Every structure is written in C-alpha cells, then in structure tokens.
Amino acid sequence: MGYKKPSFIESIAEKLGIIPDLHKEGYQEFDQDMRHFTDEQVAQLYDNFPPPEKWDNWVEYNPKVWPKKEKVTYQIVPTTCFNCESACGLTAFIDKETQEVKKFEGNPYHPGSRGRNCAKGPATINQLTDPDRILFPLKRKGKRGEGEWERVSWDEVLDTISARIRKAILENRHNEVAYHVGRPGHEKFMNWILQGWGIDGHNSHTNICSSGARFGYNLWYGYDRPSPDHAEAKFILLISAHLESGHYFNPHAQRIIEGKMKGAKLATMDPRLSNTASMSDYWMPSYPGTEAAVLLAMALYILQNKLYNRDYLENWTNWEEYLKARHADKAITFENYIASMIEEYKEYTPDFAEKESGVKAEMIVEIAQKIGEAGERFASHNWRAAGASNLGGWAVARTLHFLTVLVGAVGTKGGTSPNKWNKFAPTLPNPPKPQKQWNELHFPKEFPLAFFEMSQLLPHFLKEGRGKLDVYFSRVFNPVWTYPDGFTWMEMFMDESKFGLHAALTPTWNETAFHADFVLPMGLASERHDINSYATHGGTWVAFRQPVLREAARRNGKPVQLTYEVNPGEVWEEDEFFIELSWRIDPDGSMGIRKHFESPYRPGEKITIDEYYQYIFERVPGLPATAKKEGITELQYMQKYGAFEIESGESYKKNETLLTEAQLNGATVDADTNVVSKDGKAIGVMINGKAMVGFPTPSRKNEFYSQTMVDWKWPEYATPSYIKSHIHLDNLDKSKGEYVLVPTFRLPALIHTRSGNAKWLVEISNRNPIWMHPKDAANWGFKTGDLVKMNTDIGYFIDKVWVTQSMKPGVVACSHHIGRWRRPQDKTGNRWATNTVNIESNGKGGWKMNTISGIEPFESSDKDSKRIFWKDGGVHQNITHAVHPDPISGMHCWHQRVRIEKPGKDEHYGDIFVDTNKSHEVYKEWMKMTRPAPGPNGERRPIWFERAFRPDPSMFYLKDEKKKED
Ligand code: SF4
After folding, report:
1. Alpha helix locations (H) across 451-532?
2. pLDDT at 31
3. Would you say the CB of residue 123 lies under 6 angstroms from ligand 1?
4. CA–centroid distance, residue 300 to ligand 1 (Å)
C-alpha cells in the first residue's frame, strides 16, 4: 500500500526532506513508523511567522506597491475568527502609523487552529472594510418594515430598551423578554446577563442546527456533543456534508488530514460527493434518512463477528438494566446481552441496509470490519447533516455512538470523547442564581425532551396566541432568511402586538434587521470581546477574541473606556452593551439585578470589561503561573497571545476518574445498580470494586437501554433504532414527480448570513443551483442551466439545474447559503451578494417574491465594487420550507419532499411563492405527533437532561407551576 509513484520533483523533494517521504515503506500503515507531528514540528511550519517579541514593531514590505520596496510597520494583535463556531486564531496586522487593520493571518499560538484558517478567516478584513456596513445605531421611522431609519445615540437606545425591560420585570412579565441568538459566542456571558435579570429569556438557533445529533448523543452518555480525536485515529467515519458540515471545519479538517497522513482511513456517508467525500477512502452515498439502518447493519456485523470490546461493554453499558427490562425471562449474563442485541438487530443485515440506503452491502461489511479492527481508535462525528434533516434524525447520532461504544472507543486516544472533556468552562463574577421562570414559548409542554428551544415554532406559537414578546433581541440572527417559513416570521415581525420592540444586534444588514425597531451595529471578530473554548482535539484550550484596535491603543499608552471609541463609527459590542443595559434596568439596585454587574474588585461600582475578563482568566488552570513567569497579569497574557493551552492532549477516559475520599464520605451505593449517591444525587458508579465518576446519566454508564425514553412515552425507541424519515421512499410518490431535496449543505467558503459582506467569499461562491444526477436530468429532459420549479408543501421556488455525477440518483440538493435579498426600500447592504427583490402579499397569507435585478457593480469607497463580474445571486429556498419539528428531539427536519416540474412560460428564475396558511397547517400536522409532558412525578422535562440556561430545579415540575398559578 502507498501513494502513487512519485513524480521526479516529488522524489527529489522527499529525499531532501522538503516534504514528508510519503513513499517510504510502511508509511501508510499503522506500525511503529507512524508519523507524529510534535508541537515543535508544527511550530517549525510557522518559522516565518513573526515571533511575539516583535509583534509591536513588525516591518514588512507593502505587497500592493511591489516591485517597489516600501516598508510598513505593523502592530500585530491576536484575536479569534467569528465566521463560524470554531473560533480559530487570527492575528490582525495594524498599520502602526494609521492604526488601520490591514490584513488578518492565522495565530500559530492558538492550540485549536495552530496558525491555519479556512478562506473565511482572512476574509474578515472584507467585513471590516465593507462599504455597506452599519456604523451607527439606527431607529426605524415610519411603519415597521418600511425601510426608513434615523441615526440615534447609544444613550437613547439604552434608555428606551432598559425602561421597557424594567417595566416588564416589575409587572411580572418576565417571559415577555427574550434574547434570540444565531451565532453564539462569549461562553456563559449571556447566562450571567439573562439569569441576572431573573428571566428565562434565552432562545437559540440550535433546533435548526445541531439539536438532533445532540439528543442522540445525550441519551447515551449525558453529553450532547462529540469530540473526535481524528489525528490519533485509525478509522474515521463522518456522517457529513463536507468536512463535518462546516462544524469545526478547519481545526477538525486539519486533524482529519493529519490522521490520514499517519495512515487512518476515512469513510463518509453523504448522498452528495462533498469535499469530504471526495477526500475519503470510502464514500457511501446513502439515500437520505437511511443512515441509521446502515449503522445498525455495521453494529450487527461487529456483534456477530465478535469485534466488540467485551470489557468496555461489560463495565460501561447498562446491560443488566436492559436485560431486566426487556428480557426478564433470561439469566442476566453478558452472553445473553450479546445474544439479545444480535436478536434485536437481526433484520439489519448488510443486504437490508443496502436495500434501504443504496450503499453496497460489501462496502458496509468492509467498513464495519475496519471499525472493529480500529477498536479504541475509531473516531466519528455527526453534527448537522443527517441528524438535522430527518424525522428521527437524532437516531443517526445514537446509532453512530453505538458503534463507538461497541468497540470501546468512548473517550479514548484516537476515539471520540464527550466534548465537555475538552472544553473550558469559565467562572463568572457575582454569579446569579438560576431563574425561577420557565418560558413555554421556548420549551412548550408538547416537547418535553426537546434538546433546545423550539425556536423555529416561535412565530406559530405567537400566531395562535400563546403569548407575546414585549422586548425581543435578535443577535447575529436572521430567521427571516435562515429559518424555514420566513414569511410567517415576517408576518409576526410586522405585528406589534406580537413583537413589542425588536432590537437587532448585528454587524451587517440582514433580512430580519429590515423588520426591527432598532438596528444596533455590533463588532466583528476584531471589534469585540469574547472567550472561546471548543473541542477541536484531545486537548483543552481557551482563546480570547478581543477588539484589536483597543488593545493596540492600550499598548500605545492611549487606553479607551468603551470599545466603540476605537471601532469604526459607533460599532459597539454586546458585552459592554449588556452591562450598561443591566445597570439602567436597575439603576438603584433595588431590583437585585445591578449587584451581579458590580466590580468584584471595587465593591458597589460598575464592572469594567477588563475586570470581567481578568476575573475569568485568573481562574483558568495553569494560566496564573504562566503569566507570572512573564511578569504580566493573566489578562495581559491573553491580550498578548490570544490563547492559552490548558491541557495538551491527555484528557482520555475521564469516566474512570476515581471518586475522592471526601466525595465518598457519606455516600451510599445502590445494591442493585451500583450507582454511588450522595445528598440525593448520583455522583458515580462502582466498577470492579472501584468507585468511579462515570457518565452523567441515571445509570452513570452509557445507556444502551433508555428508561427515560420509556418513562416519557417513547418505549419503542428505548434502544438504538432506525426511524423511517418523513422523506423515506415509502412516503414519496415518484409517479407525481416527488423527490427528496437535500437543502442542508453549505459551500465551504460561505457561512450563513455573515459572508454576504465578504467580497472574496462571494466572488468564490455565488450560486445555488439544484444538483441533479445525469440519469434524473435525462428523465426530466433537463440540462445544466435549465429552469426547474421546486414545489414544496407550502409553495415553490424556481432555480436552475446543475447536472452532475456528484449527486446520488433519485436525490436532488441545493446549498442553503445563497439567495440573499433586499427590497428596493431597504438600506443598501451586502451588495456583493444580494438580489434586489419585489415582495407582495395578498393579505391572506399568499406571498410572492421575484427578482428585480441580480448582483450589480456599484460605486463605493472600495474599488472592487465596480469590478463585480457575477450577476446571479442565487435563490432563497428556506423561505419555501414548512416547519418540521421532530416530536422527540425538537430538531427541525430540513429535508423536503418536493415535486419537480418545468416552470410555466411566465415563470422566471428566482420566483418564489408561499402560502403561510398552508405552513400553519403543516405545523399543526407535525404537532399531532408529539407526546406532551408531564412525565414521571409531574416533570415537564427529565431532571437529568441538561437545558440551556437551566432554571431552578423547582421549575422542572408542572405541578409546581400549577401551584404558583393558584
Ligand atoms: S474554520 Fe474558518 S470560519 Fe471557522 S473559525 Fe476557523 S477560520 Fe474562521
């Protein structure tokens, strides 16, 4: 085995050591010769990067005037990228003379990204210099949505909003205040703010993103995210659109490739030949929604062929509980456990899986064998993709983790850990208590198991009169465009009895901000404070997103008080904004709010942003000692380097951590389950006579059998299952032209709303045609560029066809990051990416959108705006999707049943129609599938389930709610 024969140049380069010798005997095999990148080797790759001691005075030639040699002196200030969740390190190069940011490069001192970025990182400079960006706070003039705005002061904004929130809280209308976030950040900061106000006001985008996968993982082991150790793996399996659907795109991508360079094999299950699939050793183009059937077939093979890890299964799964509940007639022996599982999954033969999915049985068997051989070094990931697309999509993560459990790869080197093992959690100053509120607009009774807020249903809840929102913040959040059913969002936004005051906190214009009362410009990556910590590998780090001009000013001896003083215009940041707002809600402290936002160092005074971060960084393990060695404070260390490595990669098998004597003092052990409890709470489990911490589930083990599912009325899914999707072939009528549309993939250079103001990114990707296999195209008589009408359950959109062999026959796909729009009356924004559209409503729920003009060159301070050569801004598809809430996980099921046809002669590219009455009907249909609370003991949600912004325990009981009302 080995790479293809090297070229002449490659041979020489390998011999001279310029590139690794990939053709060396055994290089590709897992033997003693595995190649490892030490930290030093990685650092060598960045030898040319300026060393930190020169970051205040770095001289380079100006590339723009080459071949003239003109020297520019820069200050280099680290921060982190804001263009996806990964928070890779960036360094801003600031012209020392003009104090302008000139470019961004990677930060080699960031342990997650190690100096590397994807295209979206350096493109941050485009966002900063975008001529259309919003520079000052704006208030609407005229009716909401009419498009007229006036500049106002931050003082007016703060006074108006704080007075309204204060009134709502004093009148016990806590649930009328909500903060709805698209791109989250600042770890725990909003818990501090919203719980400080005593409200259950957090809403997120997670139910249109990742909560399906989270639910599947959580059922198993009480953690909702995986942290695959790709670089150390022998076999990697991804259920994925491209490198993990953009999730941890660069940090994971580089480690997947690192793993492959050491010999790991990569398998990708995806109906589309995605970037990842094209780099894989195995591509499994499965029919959408059948992934769990394939994974169960692999599980059956591993069981039947004894490739499982007996010790792990015996010690770390709740098999005795399973046998007692499901096979009471059998003796409780490990052999009976294995035999029962084989019996339970006997129908999932490779042939059955092939019939369901279209993936060849031989390939399924080969991969299952390889997973078994990889054992503890099997890494896997499912995030969006199938988990976010199908009715029962959560079962994909559950069956994927089943494989991880079977081969004992949970939390191992080269395996897949719970994400919390590789993530830093900050300690906040003056922490508030959990709120004694439960907002049913976010967590309604119908979805007691929903892993995150039912945010996609908010407009329908408002429409049917379940409540109203008096003050609503949308934060880097654009539901009108990103969410399904955007016209229903628009209808509700236009109704002031539903949304009393809408403040859009956003760095850029977007389709939702057009319907706000205040548009408040917030800082981009290099203009705001934030802390980040993500599970990128088997290590733990914390990074500091900071406003780089503020830090440069500090270094230059000209410190500023508030960040907007150095940012362009009056662009601010959420941290300072919300601290100010909190003080104005409770100016004299009588509401008990202000005390949380007082300085921990200067009692009674307002906390400063430096104090907030100093307090947190003082408590980062290892940072105080490291900073002390340099003679600087913890905050100064983070301001200087931008990141700190807390732990470099030995956080494996944490479930085996022994309980301490202090923990065991007063604890009891359940004779039946071996669970160790103290003060009424499970704290560990006895394994082979030792008290270990285990996992945060009721059994403290991986739960193959979930009593929780039984207790909450879903006994049919007590064990890992295959659930037929809403778009399963049984549910489609091919004779009527019904197909499945996969709308969940993104183009790697784009990122939801925020790439519309990055010219380099839009130049690379600016169309979203319908991907169609040549066989399907031939059946329909389509060729590339032909118009196609995609009829959804609530309307249609008209797009163009792209005929490609990269699509599985019988399935079509469309990228969801294109089709941005603005109306003629709207402020100019994102002109690199937006079509100008006309929107008409018939006043009875019928909405039409058609394109007036595509993307056009424009005059601006940026000369490139006159050079725009692309015209086609794509088509907005999400707005034609109905809401499909999974009745268990709450996840929106993105895949669409579509009816494909050729458009009529008066129908044009970009035409869209939606009937919001139909969308409300579809909503009601899906609601019928739910099995509402209460569960056992009057609970509205299992107590052991995590919940974002977890309220006081008393709020978990419906009966307590009843008493309160009485
Ligand atoms: S992966 Fe790309 S977009 Fe995401 S944080 Fe890293 S550089 Fe930015």
Report:
1. 458-463, 479-482, 486-493
2. 40
3. no
4. 38
